[in-house]
Every structure is written in structure tokens, then in C-alpha cells.
Write a structure and sequence with these properties.
218 residues; 11 strands; globular; binds zinc ion
Length: 218
């Protein structure tokens, strides 16, 4: 793992947040974030992948695009300064603080199908991010076809010199966080990853905390 990462902290205090919620281990979550609001995800116990999608709150057909995001920033991992881009090439949010680094947006979400291929047929019935996303987007009238390639906050996916990728031990420590400011009204959808067959969650899925600050709070 490269070490050229500089942590950037946020001045915002949890006590001034308009929303503060702990997503239990293995569970999905969604919430609306208004343009100008700040959104923080805290990896409470460390080494917990947080699979995340964004949708335009007023038109769900416009949604997060990992491809547009990587092209726009010309870098393989997300961190402070990264613009979170939509499939229409518009800025949805910008990462303004990050104490962990190396957030992936290439490896996608775990699914029963992928588990079966990677880890054996006996894992087919284990709960996966794909199911979490399905449950959560269905609350907003969306279906399978609305789930696209996601951000994996706090997931360590080193890209090798030959171009291959692997899911490696997490690098986030307890309390590490990533914070972003919405550049449009968005719906954020999270799967607090339940994977226990690879090291993305340290083989022990744990809770994460989400906070939202109103635009006039800083
Ligand atoms: Zn997962």
C-alpha cells in the first residue's frame, strides 16, 4: 500500500449535526442530503467496508457513476478533493475530509452470485450488499436495474502493477471518517457490508455512524 496519503480533518462537531444515526452491522440505510449539506461516514471500529450509491433526489435516473468519477479525477482511489460524479457528468458531491484514504470504486458490491463463484456454493445464501441495496432502493420505488457500480468507502483494493486487483486487509482505524458536501440534492444509499468471506470487513462486520449537517453549519 502506498503511503502518500495526508489525512484531512473536518471542523464539524457531531453535536451540531441535524442527523446522527448508527447503521447496525450488516444493515442497509438511505437518506436525503440537501445541496450544501455535509455528510460524514464514520468507521466506528475500523476495517468496515461501506458500499455507497448516490442518486439525484429529484430524478433517480441520474445516479453515481464510478467511471465518470475516475475519469474526472484521474486517480484510482477516492479521497479529499475527489468529485463524486453522476452518469450525466455532473458533480453530485465533493469529498472535503478523509482520515483513512484509498476508498475504492472499482470492485463493486458483494452479491450471492459473486460469493458463489469466489467462495463456493455453500455461500450462496449468505446476505450480501446486493440484497441490502435491493431492500433499500425498493423503499424509493427503484428496482434491480437501478443498482449500479458503487463506492466502497474504507475498502482496500490494491491495484497491482499488472492491473489486477485484490481485496486486501482494511486500512481504516476505529473512528476514521470520510466527509463530503452535496453539490446537488441527493439520495444516499448504503449497504454496511455483511461480507465475511474476505478481509474487507476484517471477517467481522461492525456498525458505522452517519451524520448530516445543515448547510449553515460548519
Ligand atoms: Zn459487501
Amino acid at each position: 500500500m502506498s503511503t502518500n496519503f495526508t489525512p484531512v480533518h473536518s471542523p464539524r462537531e457531531p453535536a451540531t449535526a441535524r442527523y446522527d444515526f448508527v447503521i447496525p452491522a450488516n444493515q442497509p440505510w438511505s437518506g436525503f442530503i440537501v445541496k450544501g449539506e455535509a455528510f460524514r461516514i464514520i468507521d466506528l471500529e475500523g476495517c468496515q467496508a461501506v458500499d455507497t450509491l448516490f442518486y439525484n433526489a429529484h430524478d433517480f435516473a441520474e445516479r453515481y457513476s464510478g467511471q465518470d468519477t475516475l475519469v474526472a479525477q484521474k486517480a484510482a482511489y477516492l479521497s479529499t478533493g475527489s468529485g463524486i460524479m453522476s452518469n450525466e457528468g455532473r458533480l453530485m458531491a465533493r469529498i472535503t475530509a478523509d482520515t483513512s484514504g484509498f476508498h475504492d470504486t472499482s470492485a463493486g458490491a458483494c452479491s450471492c452470485e459473486a460469493n458463489t463463484v469466489r467462495f463456493g456454493h455453500h455461500t450462496k445464501y449468505m446476505h450480501a450488499c446486493r440484497e441490502n441495496f435491493l431492500i433499500e432502493v425498493s423503499k424509493h420505488g427503484m428496482t434491480k436495474r437501478d443498482i449500479v457500480g458503487n463506492i466502497n468507502f474504507f475498502m482496500n483494493v490494491p491495484i497491482q502493477p499488472d492491473g489486477s486487483i485484490a481485496i486486501a486487509d482494511g486500512v481504516s482505524s476505529p473512528g476514521d471518517y470520510v466527509e463530503m458536501v452535496a453539490e446537488m440534492d441527493v439520495l444516499a444509499v448504503i449497504s454496511n457490508c455483511p461480507q465475511v468471506n474476505n478481509p474487507c470487513n476484517g471477517f467481522n462486520p461492525t456498525p458505522v455512524r452517519v451524520l448530516i449537517w445543515a448547510a449553515d453549519r460548519n
